[in-house]
Write a structure and sequence with these properties.
Blueprint (H helix, E strand, L loop, with lengths): L1 H18 L6 H22 L13 H23 L2 H22 L4 H26 L1
Length: about 140
């Protein structure tokens, strides 16, 4: 459980560190945001019928909702990195805090097997977030 909390706090720390590098003009950011929103709508419509690959399933409904929300957070983070949209990172900071709070609530509901699955999943996702953060710095 400590590993999961530490991984989540690492993700939040990386998120806040990447938000401090705001050097772009706001006009280009707003144009990118509009383009990103249009492509997000198309992608959401196409992804609704498919299942997410690599997302473990859990016996507790609340844990599964948390993992699905975290997966959506990762996708939003990827899009923000690709577009280098700093305004999107601001909203991701709020989502990250909400996910951190929800993670603490969910931890009490995990069985032994689910703890293992969740910690492995969170380690993979934290590595993925680190790679994305490095990509953002380039």
């Amino acid at each position: 459980m400590k590993k999961v909390i530490l991984n989540l706090s690492l993700v939040i720390a990386i998120l806040f560190a990447s938000c401090k590098n705001e050097t772009k003009e706001t006009s280009t950011s707003s144009e990118n945001t509009e383009n990103t929103e249009k492509t997000e709508e198309k992608e959401e419509n196409s992804s609704e019928g498919s299942t997410k690959v690599g997302v473990p399933s859990f016996s507790d409904k609340n844990v599964q909702e948390y993992v699905n929300a975290y997966e959506a957070y990762i996708e939003d983070y990827k899009k923000a990195v690709e577009s280098k949209d700093m305004t999107a990172f601001a909203s991701l900071g709020q989502k990250g805090q909400e996910l951190g709070t929800k993670a603490q609530e969910v931890m009490g509901n995990l069985s032994g097997e689910d703890v293992t699955k969740l910690s492995e999943y969170m380690q993979k996702k934290s590595e993925q977030l680190q790679e994305l953060s490095q990509k953002m710095m380039q």
